[in-house]
């Protein structure tokens, strides 16, 4: 990668050139982000996965820019217009927008008003007028009348068309308009009159006659308006005042008050109205969409991360219930490894109302399969099913948990589910998925398309390739953060382990099936297609429980085993004793083991891992109960305090399940007693909270909640949630996608 690009990335992300160079080299040789973050801390200066991903994103951007430069140079050269100066400008360019502006005058075009006028021989007249001399435009135009130009009016119009195109292709002009759009553009929307009264249009009522500064418009609003436009209900525009743009351009292109200047003035106005404004609006529509996409994807990715890292029950024998009314509740029993044992259907709810029969069936299954915990889905009949289960005396402790079943139906009909349970129907597979989610959310959720899990906003409106890339990165990050038991993991989980492709993951499963499981990490080298590089990337993230070498069940990488062995020798001990005895570990001085290849960060990680090798970093699971006597929206009253679980987080607030089949919204202004800019500052997905009911709108199926302390019935003065004026706050350093990078570079140029 060229030095100018490295310098730009380093400056943008506030990193050193060494860090950029190291990440570039590691990424180029095939190292994954989790591997770089965990096992190459000395090279990166202990950068986390997000920072490393940001660098890689920038590297990709400049790689694409370099390819585009090659195309631009080739095209201009073939047209015979490439000069040494122009080539140098292109080569030195580090911004995609700047590159396209340079290229624009040379870019092959379809027939335009300007090209038609040039074909008529009017370019010399345009040049003469553009210089704004003292001659009379009418007299000069008369010289160009011929078979193609019938009169002076046509000649002058053609000359203005040519000048308009020059102005529209002028870099300074385009930057002036971009600057104005950046500073004062407004996003507006209006409803199509013919669609105004349609029922489907009413969800966009807030945007029937809407306008606000583009710079202040949040991502969810941009995406909502764009969706309304896509569905044919709204018309969206991003614009500035025409007069403001005209005035700014005239200050650049008008040189004198003469008659020629009047022609240039008309060309300026036409250039903006017909060419510049649509072009720059398109840029800003695209840039605002990209920015909104990135924000929505960020929210989705963070929610997904929290969901994947939700607390696991661990190795317990469980019963899973997929609740339902008419079709009954689907019940499955699983052993501590998630192996399917038994299926049944019970009908405790309307219309059958076989409460006693359902109770007896559950009791018998719990006794027969030694069930330790029961998980029930949070969909239809969830609350009623919870009441059923909690009312049964099992004669022993049996924990009860609500399980988020979002996406379970997607899994049950998927190829993965058919492969795992070819003899079972979708209802059985769905219940099994609920049970396995309770045991280990991560292992089960990786089988489902992340978009189907339902913890995002506007996920179907954003760039789908970018969304998939971001979500896959989150899944990979979570899987490797937790670590994977190579002898129990499915191929669907293994394929997210650093360095393992889908094919190699399949080969791992086939090897262990044939050979009875892995006895050591070193044995992984015998797997077909798992070469030295793949082993380097995956070994530290794979666990082998009860291996002869206890380090094989830890996050210590095999390349560092010799360090641990040296530590044990230094302490006159063995590796197992070193792990078991904290007094022995206290004797270890990190500095004694630092070398040219093993630095302080690696030694610190090793020492932390030796304290609890193979530990699960996820928090322990907790039971939860909804409020008694609250099962419908009608049961909720303003001022009531009720327990709930956070089910989704957006950039405008959080949704909370309070046990009434309709999630309530906690607006960002009601998440805390202090100002917050990001809901994740206050809540996490799956968090248990105590909420205060502010408003219940049964007709619109809306519940407004508050998590503010001290907010009670006496304090509720209005049924509408308070919306506080948001104060400016410092922006955090964030990576710029290509379009954001373009705008940022322009802003910098303007300031300079």
Model description:
The protein is an alpha/beta fold. Among the domains are: 3-106, Arc Repressor Mutant, subunit A, CATH 1.10.10; 159-302, Tex N-terminal region-like (Orthogonal Bundle); 318-439, Nucleotidyltransferase, domain 5, CATH 3.30.420.140; 633-715, Nucleic acid-binding proteins (OB fold (Dihydrolipoamide Acetyltransferase, E2P)), CATH 2.40.50.140. 47% of the residues lie in helices and 11% in strands. It contains 30 helices and 15 strands. The protein has a 5-stranded mixed sheet, sandwiched between helices. A 5-stranded mixed barrel has the order 11-12-13-15-14. Strand 4 (318-322) and strand 5 form a beta hairpin. Helix 2 crosses helix 5 (49-78) and helix 14 packs across helix 15 (259-308). It is globular. The relative contact order is 0.08. The model is unreliable at 713-743 and 745-752 (pLDDT under 50).
Mean pLDDT: 90
Query: CATH topology of the domain at 159-302, anyone?
Result: Tex N-terminal region-like
Q: Which regions contain 5 or more consecutive residues with pLDDT less than 50?
A: 713-743, 745-752
Q: How is the largest sheet built, in terms of strand order?
A: 6-5-4-7-8
CATH superfamily of the domain at 159-302: Tex N-terminal region-like
- The CATH architecture classification of the domain at 159-302 is Orthogonal Bundle
What is the topology?
Blueprint: H1 3-13, H2 17-28, H3 33-39, H4 41-44, H5 49-78, H6 84-92, H7 96-103, H8 113-119, H9 123-131, H10 137-142, H11 152-168, H12 171-184, E1 186-191, E2 209-213, H13 219-230, E3 234-239, H14 242-253, H15 259-308, E4 318-322, E5 329-334, E6 340-346, H16 355-368, E7 373-377, H17 382-390, E8 399-403, H18 408-412, H19 415-420, H20 426-439, H21 441-445, H22 464-482, E9 484-485, H23 491-494, H24 502-515, H25 532-538, E10 542-543, H26 561-570, H27 575-580, H28 582-586, H29 600-611, E11 641-650, E12 653-657, E13 664-667, E14 688-697, E15 702-706, H30 738-751
Parallel strand pairs: 4-7, 7-8, 9-10, 13-15
Antiparallel strand pairs: 1-2, 1-3, 4-5, 5-6, 11-12, 11-14, 12-13, 14-15
Helix pairs in contact: 1-2, 1-5, 2-5, 8-11, 9-11, 11-15, 12-14, 12-15, 12-30, 13-15, 14-15, 15-22
């Amino acid at each position: 990668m060229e030095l100018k690009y490295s310098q730009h990335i380093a400056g943008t992300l506030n990193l050193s050139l060494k860090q950029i160079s190291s990440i570039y080299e590691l990424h180029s040789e095939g190292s994954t982000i989790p591997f770089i973050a965990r096992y190459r801390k000395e090279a990166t200066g202990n950068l986390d996965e997000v920072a490393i991903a940001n660098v890689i994103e920038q590297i990709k951007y400049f790689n694409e820019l370099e390819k585009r430069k090659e195309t631009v140079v080739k095209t201009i050269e073939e047209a015979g217009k490439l000069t040494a100066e122009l080539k140098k400008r292109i080569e030195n360019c580090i911004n995609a927008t700047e590159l396209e502006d340079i290229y624009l005058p040379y870019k092959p075009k379809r027939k335009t008003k300007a090209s038609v006028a040039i074909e008529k021989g009017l370019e010399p007249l345009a040049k003469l007028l553009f210089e704004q001399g003292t001659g009379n435009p009418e007299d000069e135009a008369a010289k160009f009348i011929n078979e193609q130009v019938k009169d002076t009016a046509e000649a002058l119009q053609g000359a203005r068309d040519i000048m308009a195109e020059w102005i529209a292709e002028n870099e300074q002009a385009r930057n002036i308009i971009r600057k104005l759009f950046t500073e004062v553009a407004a996003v507006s929307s209006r409803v199509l009159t013919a669609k105004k009264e349609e029922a489907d249009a009413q969800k966009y009522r807030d945007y029937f006659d809407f306008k606000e500064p583009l710079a202040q418009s949040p991502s969810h609003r941009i995406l909502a308006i764009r969706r309304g436009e896509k569905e044919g209900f709204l018309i969206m525009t991003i614009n500035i005042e025409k007069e403001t743009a005209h005035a700014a351009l005239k200050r650049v292109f008008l040189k004198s008050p003469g008659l020629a200047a009047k022609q240039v003035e008309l060309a300026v106005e036409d250039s903006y109205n017909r060419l510049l404004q649509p072009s720059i609006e398109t840029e800003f529509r695209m840039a605002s969409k990209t920015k909104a996409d990135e924000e929505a994807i960020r929210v989705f990715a963070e929610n997904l991360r929290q969901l994947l890292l939700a607390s696991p029950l661990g190795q317990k024998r469980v019963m899973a219930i997929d609740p339902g009314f008419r079709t009954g509740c689907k019940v499955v029993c699983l052993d501590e490894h998630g192996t399917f044992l038994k299926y049944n259907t019970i009908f405790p709810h309307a219309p059958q109302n076989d409460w006693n029969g359902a109770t007896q069936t559950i009791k018998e299954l719990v006794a027969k399969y030694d069930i330790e915990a029961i998980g029930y889905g949070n969909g239809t009949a969830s609350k009623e099913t919870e009441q059923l289960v909690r009312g049964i005396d099992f004669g022993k402790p049996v924990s009860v948990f609500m399980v988020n079943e979002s996406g379970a139906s997607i899994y049950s009909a998927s190829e993965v589910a058919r492969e795992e349970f070819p003899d079972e129907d979708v209802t059985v597979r769905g219940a099994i998925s609920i049970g396995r989610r309770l045991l280990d959310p991560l292992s089960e959720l990786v089988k489902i398309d992340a978009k189907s899990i339902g913890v995002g906003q506007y996920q179907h409106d954003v760039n789908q390739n970018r969304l998939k890339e971001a979500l896959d990165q989150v899944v990979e990050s979570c899987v490797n953060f937790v670590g994977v038991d190579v002898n129990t993991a499915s191929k669907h989980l293994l394929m997210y382990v650093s360095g393992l492709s889908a094919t190699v993951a399949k080969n791992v499963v086939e090897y262990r099936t044939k050979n009875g499981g892995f006895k050591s990490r070193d044995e992984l080298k015998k797997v077909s297609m798992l070469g030295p590089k793949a082993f380097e990337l995956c070994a530290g993230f794979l666990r082998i429980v009860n291996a002869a070498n206890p380090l094989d069940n830890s996050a210590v990488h095999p390349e560092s085993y010799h360090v641990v062995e040296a530590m044990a020798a230094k302490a006159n001990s063995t590796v197992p004793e070193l792990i078991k005895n904290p007094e022995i570990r206290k004797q270890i001085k990190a500095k004694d083991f630092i070398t040219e290849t093993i630095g302080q960060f690696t030694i610190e990680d090793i020492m932390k891992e030796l304290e609890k090798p193979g530990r699960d970093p996820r928090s322990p699971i907790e039971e939860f109960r909804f409020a008694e006597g609250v099962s419908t929206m009608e049961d909720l009253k303003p001022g009531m305090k009720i327990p709930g679980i956070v089910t989704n987080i957006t950039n405008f607030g959080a949704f909370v399940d309070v046990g009434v089949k309709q999630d309530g919204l906690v607006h960002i202004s009601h998440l805390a007693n202090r100002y917050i800019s990001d809901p994740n500052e206050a809540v996490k997905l799956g968090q248990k909270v105590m909420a205060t009911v502010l408003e219940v709108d049964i007709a619109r199926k809306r519940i407004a909640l508050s998590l503010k302390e001290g907010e009670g019935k006496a304090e509720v003065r209005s049924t509408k949630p308070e919306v506080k004026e948001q104060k400016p706050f410092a922006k955090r350093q964030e990576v710029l996608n290509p379009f954001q990078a373009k705008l940022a570079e322009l802003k910098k140029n303007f300031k300079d």
